[in-house]
Amino acid sequence: IVALGEVDKNAKCSFKDTAEQQWHYKYIASAYSKKIITGMNDELFGTGESLTRQDMVTLCKRAYEMKNGSLEPNTENTLFADDESIADYAKDAVYALYAAGKINGMGDNTFSPLSPATRAQGAMIIYNLFLK
Fold first, then answer.
1. What is the CA radius of gyration of the chain?
2. Residue 3, pLDDT above cutoff 90
3. Separation between Cα atoms, residue 31 and residue 7, nearest integer Å
4. What whole-number distance in Å separates Cα of residue 40 and Cα of residue 56?
């Protein structure tokens, strides 16, 4: 949201684990209002929870498309060996960003969707999507 210049100080969200006086509220509320993020359910955002690789890619694709238009998935020649472990909601994002050259797998033809995203992986995706 910050990288996109889309922080909305008036945005609201009603997650029980995110209060208006907390430092992160305006970012979560802004991303929620732009439909970039959803919660873990209707009541919880998941503040303090780890972000999986598949969730990071899904959020980044939504943010990219908000600014730049649609990226189409391409699964013809890019199926990862652990494709069955990628959640249905994340497959389009994983394969669209992979086909566009914005993300990589883990080097052994896997994506490792449930592994926690590292700061380095996040920096690479943000750079490739928004700064390159």
1. 15
2. no
3. 8
4. 14
